[in-house]
Amino acid sequence: MMQRATSLVAVNAPKHVAAFSKVAALVETPRGGPSSGSGAKIAGRSRFYKAVGIEAEGDGYCITLDGKKVRTPSRSLLQLPTKALAATVAMEWDAQREVIQPTTMPIMTLASTALDHWDFEFIIEELMKYLQTDTICFPVESQHQEKLATRQEKKWQPLRKWFETEFGGELDINYGTITKLQHDAVAVNNVRTFVDSVRQ
């Protein structure tokens, strides 16, 4: 059972926060086993704790399992900014049964990822890779699948047009191939500038 303090926080938290662990507990582990990432080190482990609690820590709150503070996979203290958020993560831990399933702990996973991967330059580089793999840049060839090609053109062309207007350059399009895209350099730089501005 969670400590009484945690339960009181959950009662006072928004309804969607209080209900979150109930929804998360219904999520099944996908085929192929638990997902990688922040839960990789605990996936499949038997529940090794009895009590889940919350403690004030600096300017935020941390989660405790039998009095021991939870840490991220990189061994950083899992310190959260609000009681409501800490209560949500605590409920995810408390909802675990005999075996810990990280896939039923999405807020814990997001919090760990945010704390462990704070290198903005790394994040920007990872996001920029999606420009090379976006589906709308790889339509089928009309001579092979005319009906599908027509539908793709109807749905995707407006998106490509918006992108080109918004970021000032054309997208490279590969029909029926998966070779590396060569987008307009101006557009790529403008996208990078936009992504970088989001962190301000």
Automatic annotation (TrEMBL):
InterPro entries: ATP12_ATP_synth-F1-assembly, ATP12_ATP_synth-F1-assembly_N, ATP12_ortho_dom_sf. This is ATP synthase mitochondrial F1 complex assembly factor 2. It is found in: Mitochondrion. GO terms for biological process: mitochondrial proton-transporting ATP synthase complex assembly. The keyword GTP-binding does not apply. The keyword Membrane does not apply. Keywords: Chaperone, Mitochondrion, Transit peptide. Its main location: mitochondrion.
